[in-house]
Amino acid sequence: MTVAGYINMQALGERVLIRRRRLDLSQHALAAKAGVDVMTISRLERGDKKRLEIEPLARLARALGVTTDALLGMTPTPRTRPRPRTAAPVG
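Now predict its structure.
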C-alpha cells in the first residue's frame, strides 16, 4: 500500500478495475455513478494516473461500495458474489 506516505497507484488502479468488473460496470457506468471523468478511471486502471485527489477517491469508493481504505489497500476489499444467472426458458 504505502511506503513512507507513498500510495501505490498501480495497485489502486487494479483494485478499482477488479471491483468494477465484479460489479459488472463499464468504465462509463462507473464514471457516471461516481461523478468523475471516464478518462480518470481509464488512466487509473491502466496505471497511468500519478495521483488522485481525495474527493474523486471518495466518490469512486462510494460508487464501488467499498471504503477508501479498501481501495488504498489498507483493509480487505469485500468480495461481491456473482449475480445469479437466471435459467433460460424451457421450450
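The radius of gyration is 15 Å.
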